[in-house]
Fold:
Amino acid sequence: MFFQTAENVRRARMNRNLDTIKQNLLDQKKELELKLTTLAKEAFSDGQVQDPGDQALLSTMESLRTSLQDSDLEQYKRIVRAIKKFEDGSYGICIDCGNDISEKRLLSFADADRCLACQEEYEDLQTE
Structure:
């Protein structure tokens, strides 16, 4: 007769969660690839804008597109890095302290590189 210990139940739940997280990361990666490809192909003008007001609007729209593209590219890089960690067995391990990143944090931030304590410390150092 097989008895499930609390630890076995916890591990099984974590494995199911990891499968879900990995699939979500793969879906996000595919979505961002499509979005980045679309943004890269977009052109707001054929270069024939004559009116200074239209030119200013065009410039603003181009800056916004570039900003969105940069943000999406950074997110894409984080997702690819997380997927590689799944492949090499290091997913869920904090890059700073080497401890496990909590399951709750990984479910909220699948591309998290750091545990909550190290992330807070990292962000504090970035604002100094």
Q: What stands out?
A: The radius of gyration is 21 Å. The chain has one domain: 6-42+52-127. Residues 6-42+52-127 form a domain with the Four Helix Bundle (Hemerythrin (Met), subunit A) fold (CATH 1.20.120.910).
